[in-house]
Amino acid sequence: MKKEVKSEMEDELRPEYNFAQMQGGIRGKYVERYRKGTNLVLLDADVAQAFPNDAAVNEALRLLMQITQRQQPNTTV
Question: Do 69 and 60 meet the contact criterion of CB atoms below 8 Å apart?
Fold first, then answer.
């Protein structure tokens, strides 16, 4: 026996929802959890123009890290 295939028109989704009429939702319920789990950094417009993509930003930051590590005095004895 084969399972019946539902047609696309039989789904329960509406073409549009009015969220103002929905009750029980809490705005910002997971915002703190989201903030803790993301590492998104926003660049100022002038900085963003200097880099074509995220790989270029990462490369520049890694180079800066290498430079600062070389310039720090060696404190090991």
Answer: no
Instruction: Kindly report, residue by residue over 16-33, the tens digit of the pLDDT.
Output: 988 888 888 888 899 888
Token code pair at residue 60: 């520049």
Q: What is the DSSP letter of 14?
A: -
d(CA 2, CA 47): 59
Confidence (pTM): 0.46
**Residue 56, token pair as written in the block:** 């270029």
- How far apart (Å, rounded) are the C-alpha atoms in residues 75 and 77? 6
Domain assignments of the chain as residue spans, ordered by start: 29-77
Q: Is 76 helix (H, G, I), strand (E, B) or coil?
A: coil
